[in-house]
Amino acid sequence: MKQEVELPEGAEATYKKGILNIEHDGQELEKKLDHAQVDVKIEDGSIVFQTDNQNKGIQSIVKTFSSHTKNMLEGMKNPHTYKLKAVYAHFPMTVKQKGNEIVVENFMGERHPRRAKIDENVDVDVQEEEITVKSSDKEAAAQTAARIEQLSKKGNRDPRTFQDGIYITEGDL
Asked: pTM for this structure?
């Protein structure tokens, strides 16, 4: 089985020690794509993923590697974006960005702020209750948005009554 991903004009790719590195328009992304039964080659302006194994599991890995590479190239053209909204009814919460963290204060009247780490190469913009997460790396953007959403877990409370929280409203779901 063979999967081929075309590189856009001006993009360069290298593959060393299981790490695929793509550079395009001043941006650089790298991803570990390593499997013993999958060969990765860069030839004639494209990245080729190939296996001789007929096992469906190995063939799915080839397709996964191809999809990850397409996501990397797509993110370099148009950054992956997630929009979140902070909603509260009982206690007015405050969402702030401090360095490489998102801090939620006064969630459900709690005295201690909740914190979530922002991954590298991810831009987070906080405008009152609107939060925007952008990155050319799809996994980093999605993971950061998920961490922010999980900050507002309510524990053992009825979700029909306590609807306070931070929710993903738009994104590459």
From this structure: 0.85
Residue 17 amino acid letter: K
CATH topology match: 2-77 vs 80-170:
yes
Annotate 26-35 with b (16+ C-beta within 10 A) or e (fewer): ebebebebee
Q: Residue 171 and residue 148: Cα distance in Å, rounded?
A: 14
Reply yes or no on domain 2-77 having CATH 3.30.499.10.
no
Q: What do you get for the CA distance between the two ends of the chain, in Å? A: 29
For the segment 4-34, what is each residue's pLDDT rounded down to a tens digit?
Answer: 999 998 899 999 999 999 998 888 999 999 9
User: What residues pair up with 81 in beta bridges, in sequence order?
Assistant: 134
Per-residue pLDDT tens digits for 77-131:
899 999 999 999 878 999 999 999 999 999 988 899 999 999 998 999 999 899 9
